[in-house]
UniProtKB/TrEMBL annotation:
Keywords: ATP-binding, Cell membrane, Membrane, Nucleotide-binding, Transport. It is a peripheral membrane protein. Residues 6-255 form the ABC transporter domain. It comes from Phytoactinopolyspora mesophila. SMART domains: AAA. This is ATP-binding cassette domain-containing protein. GO terms for molecular function: ATP binding; ATP hydrolysis activity. It is found in: Cell membrane. GO terms for biological process: peptide transport. It comes from the Bacteria. One of its GO terms (cellular component) is plasma membrane.
Amino acid sequence: MSEPLLEVRDLRTDFALKDRELRVVDGVSLTVEQGQALAIVGESGSGKSVTMRSVMRVLPKTGRIVGGTAKLNGRDVLALSERQMRQVRGREIGMVFQNAMEALNPTLTLERQLTEHLRWHGICDQAEAKRRAIETLGDVGIPEPEKRIRTYPFQLSGGMRQRAMIAMAMVARPKLLIADEPTTAVDVTVQRQILDLLATLKERGTGVIMITHDLGVARYFCDEAIVMYGGRVVEQASVRSLLAEPAHPYSAGLLRSTVEVGGRHRALTPIPGAPPDLAYRPSGCVFHPRCDQAEESCRKNEQPLLPLPTPVPAGGRDVAARPDTTTTTSRVVACWKAVERG
Ligand SMILES: Nc1ncnc2c1ncn2[C@@H]1O[C@H](COP(=O)(O)OP(=O)(O)OP(=O)(O)O)[C@@H](O)[C@H]1O
């Protein structure tokens, strides 16, 4: 079998506080294949952004990767020099942020930003760079790209700015696109258009990692999902099975607190309590203080990720054995009760 596009194993990242180190990413593993979309879901503060910023190696000064590997087509990007890493960023991995202004320079036209990006990576000459920049702006749905290329980011509407940022991330045609809550700052119509655009990129073979707190967004076009809580992965499953039957009580809580995209809206039931203060990580299962199913053992014992037994559907194993072409990973969950329930 060929190597995965991205394979992260046992990633650990700390932040230096005044008097101690704070572990905010604690042994995260994930895999993305070419043309596959992985959702990283979880409440605010669960470690989604820091996980992907660690892979991109764009952490704040106090952040430090203390363990793990992140192999992009077999090459561990965590072991690269900063100079080599600058070649990876933008060229092999594109990143789309929550706020377009974080990625766009307000003082430069789109033409300058897009062409300089291509020229800096030595991808093509100026004439070709301009041609590609116009083509990419068209690809992301910016009308009249030949004209719009001369505008500054502040002259664009919020939705168009978001598209321009995706164009920036895509112009060098990276194999992997990381989108960190790309639809949070835009209205529902633009949200839909951005998700359609990301779905098209996926169909063309780009691997996509979508960071979101909204399972409805994940459902829209992601194949696989990991659910993060307190810096750890608590469940990994295909989006389809996660939405149909979340195994971890936290995943089930997230699902109950999610508004559906494009479908029926259901009453929101927030998960009681608050995410953990990582400086005072609870003993045992990190979710136990908020879990209505927690028992003494959950308070005492850490919960490793364990495979969930595959249920035998009516009709027997032959049906279960039918290959599911949209998923590549097995289903795992960090809850012994969920594993026991099967
Ligand atoms: N510069 C920093 N110094 C110390 N702690 C930090 C820093 N940046 C993030 N953290 C902590 O790391 C943890 C994970 O943050 P992260 O931004 O990855 O969460 P998230 O799941 O992406 O949430 P959100 O959806 O709000 O972005 C949080 O507890 C956060 O407080």
